[in-house]
Amino acid sequence: MKFSISMIARSVSEAERLARPGDFDFLGLITDGYSQLRRYAPTLLESFDFRAAPVVTPLMDAIETLRAVNRDKARTIPGNANTDFVSRRWRPYVFTEQGIDRRFYELCVLSELKNRLRSGDVWVVGSRQFKDFDTYLLDSKLFAELRDQNRLSLPRSAMARHCFTNYPQAGELSSAKQPACRVERGWPHRTHLVHARMDAGSRTPKARSGRAQQGRSQKRAGPGSLL
Question: What is the residue extent of each domain of the chain?
């Protein structure tokens, strides 16, 4: 098959048209799945009670804006909607000459909500996975009571018992020069851990350095399993 100069020129022009620039951002293609997202996004925002730290106030305002837009079945985002949460990467898509792009604004809100839920800046009332960080802390009244009774710190003897209860095998190794736990001045200290394996036909564990065992484990498991 022969190629003429005109055919080659058309092929080059078509390739240049299809080629994407080096700084192309795939974020612009995210709206391809917008119709599918609309099936559950309004229900998600209405069903959950999101709470947040003061630093996330702009995002919470945007969530309330989307709730109002969904209830009113409006097609556009109000011009006075809060956009302080929009990052630099999202700005070229959210802000257009016609105003705020409804699709990219909603996608940006949901993306930022996901990030804030992961960081703990936003929590969900009644959720076990995304609950308020303060629920992990002592109640303020209980804290004050323990503080007044000087019972906030864990007794040293209890710490020592915990250390040797959880690492008993390290002290039993006859070939280990240094156990995994030792007590100095009433405080337990973790030292070089010693891994052990049983020799065939023997009940005596053979000591193996922690560094060598770690290298073998990484070769077997691979770097992905350490994440």
Answer: 20-136, 156-221
Q: What is the pLDDT of residues 46-101, one digit of tens each?
A: 999 999 999 999 999 999 999 999 999 999 999 999 999 999 999 999 999 989 99
Q: Are 208 and 197 in contact (CB under 8 A)?
A: yes
Query: For every residue of 69-111, which 3-state class applies, written as one string?
Result: HHHHCCCCCCCCCCCCCCCCCCHHHHEECCEECHHHHHHHHHH
